[in-house]
Write a structure and sequence with these properties.
Strand content: 15-25%
Helix content: 25-40%
Radius of gyration: 18 Å
Shape: globular
CATH superfamily: Zn peptidases
CATH topology: Aminopeptidase
CATH class: Alpha Beta
Strand order of the largest sheet: 3-4-6-5-7-12-8-11
Number of domains: 1
Distance between the termini: 50 Å
Number of helices: 7
CATH architecture: 3-Layer(aba) Sandwich
């Protein structure tokens, strides 16, 4: 296989690798170890553990088993909200998958809801501590005209799932100094944005900027895009989910300039607050 190639079942995508390195130092992670922990914790918690595809990122020994693109599902009997959580789409953002793993191992994902977890969408990026995958593709801009094997597999898996009552996409931002979020709520459902930000403020300051990533805030730490996001040329995961799978979605962003333990704690608290909010609406 050529250098930089990424295999997913029978699909191979080869593009010139142009990795982006965050100024924040991120130690490389070993995706097979992290995936094994997710598999073990998922099965112990009663999840169905499946692979959306097999990734063979450059850097693993030739005899190594390819990394699985994991999907964990737990369908609770009865009327329960359907909650989707994703992490690890950028390889220089370690707090989201580690927060998800801690919650999974602690038994957080119980019978209160039906759960859909995609905990490590970019194992090749994590191996190299880069935002992009091994082919230089930003996976979180690849959900409209999809080029990457990872997102092709993720989209195929999503088409087999029901619609979700809540979606949470966990991220980090090396330019931020505090926590913030994006809310996509086209039907005007009860907002969870302010409760999330207020809760997270106990462990991490709210991002103080009035303009975040080029977008003016609506409230401290809260961005609600007013232009139709479906018109964007490059779709992140959250836009794809809004277009096809949910009417209430949040992108949660911790500051990667802060200590890792603090970022993990912030994401755990944000996720717990969001889940409590949607449970209260059912």
């Amino acid at each position: 296989m050529p250098t930089g190639a990424l295999a997913l079942t029978s699909t191979i995508v080869v593009l010139p690798p142009t990795p982006t390195m965050s100024p924040v130092s991120v130690p490389p992670f070993h995706p097979p170890d992290l995936i094994a922990r997710f598999e073990a914790a998922g099965r112990a918690a009663g999840f169905r553990v499946e692979s959306m595809g097999a990734i063979a990122p450059p850097g693993l020994p030739p005899a190594a088993v390819p990394c699985s693109l994991l999907a964990l599902t737990k369908r609770t009997p009865g009327r329960r909200p359907r909650i989707y959580v994703s992490a690890g789409i950028h390889g220089d953002e370690p707090a989201p998958p580690l927060a998800l793993l801690e919650l999974l191992e602690a038994g957080f994902f119980d019978a209160r809801a039906t759960w859909f977890l995609c905990p490590l969408l970019n194992p090749a990026g994590f191996l190299r501590a880069t935002r992009e995958n091994a082919d230089g593709i930003d996976l979180n801009r690849d959900y409209k005209a999809t080029r990457s094997a990872e997102i092709a597999a993720h989209r195929a898996w999503l088409t087999r799932q029901p619609n979700f009552d809540l979606t949470l996409c966990l991220h980090e931002d090396w330019e931020a100094t505090g926590y913030y979020l994006y809310e996509l709520n086209p039907l005007g459902r009860r907002s969870l944005a302010r409760p999330i930000i207020e809760a997270v403020g106990a462990v991490m300051p709210v991002e103080p900027a009035a303009v975040i990533d080029g977008r003016p805030i609506d409230e401290p730490g809260i961005i609600r895009p007013d232009a139709d996001p479906l018109l964007r040329d490059l779709w992140p995961e959250s836009i794809y989910l809004r277009a096809h799978h949910t009417t209430l979605g949040y992108t949660l962003e911790s500051s990667s300039a802060r200590p890792l333990a603090q970022r993990i704690a912030a994401h755990r608290l944000a996720l717990a607050t969001a889940v409590a909010g949607v449970l209260g609406a059912h």
